[in-house]
Amino acid sequence: MELQNTKNPLSNQDYKLRVLALNKAPVLRDFCLTCHSGCDPLHLETWILTAIARDVQQLQLDICLDGFIKDEFYRGELFVLPQSFFSCKTVVILELWNGIAVDPPSSFEFPSLKDLRLVHVFFPNGDCVQRLLSGCPVLQDLKLCSDSRSGLIRFDIRCVDFGSIYPSRFKNLVRLNFTLQKSNWHVLQALLRVSPNLEVLVIDKLYSTTNQLCSMEPFDGPGYVSSQLTTFRFNQYKGSKYEVEFVKYILKEARVLKTATISVCDTALKESVIEEVSTFPRSSTTCLLTVEVQH
Questions:
Q1: Where does the record place the FBD domain (predicted)?
Q2: Per-residue pLDDT band at 25 (split at 50, 70, 90)
Q3: Per mean pLDDT, which range of 37-51, 179-193, 205-219, 281-295 is the poorest?
Q4: 242 and 101 part of one domain
Q5: Does 147 share its domain with 14?
Q6: 116 and 72 together in one domain
């Protein structure tokens, strides 16, 4: 079931609520709620909790109460997920977008959640991130896309120690889509250390110039790369110092890697990157290394 509100149709909210209430299916497999202005938070909460009461399995929420997104990022009033949201036992795929504030209770669990996608959502503080991921014991697929320019925390988790807080929570993680920005190289490093069964790693770079980068710890010795890693992709590669070191490390340590794809922004850069990465040592003798232009 999909509910959308992008034009401020306030008169339709009661109608949509009645439609959802009249749906008598005991199990609501998919529920997608998009609101980009004009929604009453109480209505949103009712729709979401109704879906949870119907044992929803795939839940996607994209909420911008003020409807104003600047430079692809929402800056307006936040919709705070109700505490009862975290009692859902059936959700397998959870996707949260934009103006949603995530503040989990101190103790909760999503026992069925395997796929978690967080795109530009807000956390009141770093503890919220810890609590959220600690409540996902069977997580397999994690996508993180953030923006640290806001005064609030948009998955800016510089104070989280993954290894000491919940390393076992990532033992089932097989796919990681990570949005790389200037301040979170160390977060990527920490996630790789506690994901021993990772099979697919996709990096999407958010920053544009090398002088924006903050420091990161060097990749020194084994331990950062899963022995199960078979697929690696780096989008928007520009050959900065850290990018070169990271790609070189992945190729050297990923012993069963089957495909490695480096995506660049133009043809001229492609030629120089091909020449450079072709000299990097590779542990996997069967790895197919590709450099492509991303359009």
A1: 223-292
A2: low
A3: 205-219
A4: no
A5: yes
A6: yes
DSSP string, the chain: -EEEE-S--GGGHHHHHHHHHH---S---EEEEEE-SS--HHHHHHHHHHHHHTT-SEEEEEE-TT--EETTEE-SPPEEPPGGGGG-SS-SEEEEEESEE----SS---TT--EEEEES-BBSSHHHHHHHHHT-TT--EEEEE--TTSSSBSS--TT--HHHH-GGGGTT--EEEEEE-TT-HHHHHHHHHT-TT--EEEEEE----GGGPPP-----SSSSS-TT--EEEEES----HHHHHHHHHHHHH-TT--EEEEEESSHHHHHHHHHHHTTS--S-TT-EEEEEE--
266 or 164, higher pLDDT: 266
Tell me, yes or no, whether 116 lies in a domain: yes
Q: Which band of pLDDT confidence, cut at 50, 70 and 90, is reported for residue 147?
A: low
> Based on the domain organization, do 123 and 12 belong to the same domain?
yes
pLDDT classification of 223: cutoffs 50, 70, 90? low
266 and 155, same domain (yes or no): no
Check whether 199 has a pLDDT greater than 90: yes
Asked whether residue 193 is domain-assigned, the answer is: no
Count the domains in the chain.
2
184 found inside a domain: no
Its domain, for residue 224, covers 198-295
